[in-house]
Amino acid sequence: MLVTSLLPAAVLWDLDGTLIDSEPFWLTAERSLVAEYGVEWTDVDGLSLVGKGLMDSGRYLQSRGVDMDPADIVDRLVTEVRLLLQNDIPWRPGALDLLRSVHDAGIPQVLVTMSYRSLADIVVNDLGFLAASITGDEVTHSKPHPEPYHLGAAAVQANIRHCVAFEDSKPGVASATASGATTIAVPLHVPLPENPTEYDTWHTLVGRTVVDIAAVYTQRTTR
After folding, report:
1. What is the pTM of this model?
2. Cβ-proximal residues to 159 (8 Å cutoff; 6+ apart), any chain
3. In which domain, by residue range, is 192 found?
4. Which of 87, 103, 130 is the last residue of a domain?
5. How far apart (Å, rounded) are the C-alpha atoms in residues 192 and 92?
6. Are 158 and 218 in a shared domain?
7. pLDDT, tens only, 175-204
8. Final residue of a domain: which of 57, 87, 117?
9. Count of other CB atoms within 10 angstroms of residue 168
């Protein structure tokens, strides 16, 4: 039986690539845009943007030859991805079961994503039980800066060092670890190096429950 004191104060979730496999949606939107400007765009190009702030992506696309203001580039991408996401939320295997397990344990959960509010709310509303959400258009500093995770913890009045964060990307893991949260990496499209001194790595969410989260949190905070 779990001891309440060993449970984290909150669980903070990245969205794209962590809870949902939305990277193909972003790649589709990026390819559609760059094709209008005769720019070659590969999977490697798209995956190089994983985990970064959308304005960073907009500036990069502009530098590659998309003759638009970065903010307009972002608006275009967000609009296309929103249409795809409204038709189908591509949950990672095991994600919904793990979210419900944490919810059933009474632990607040916060979405901490660099996607914009109009995208995040599709997932927030579908779930119906997240305590709060922090989005990329509401922060001053994007990941890998720790600000998004500090805001996520503050949204539920939790000490960040008593929180567990889930991330799939290098910028996201850097943000989460720098914030002081116990971090669990769940790589998907972009490999992450094993770094047990900084974070734990799970290669799937399937079969995981709040018991597994509590075990990682306890090990990290009591050693």
Report:
1. 0.91
2. 9, 153
3. 4-20+91-222
4. 87
5. 17
6. yes
7. 999 999 999 999 998 899 999 999 999 999
8. 87
9. 24
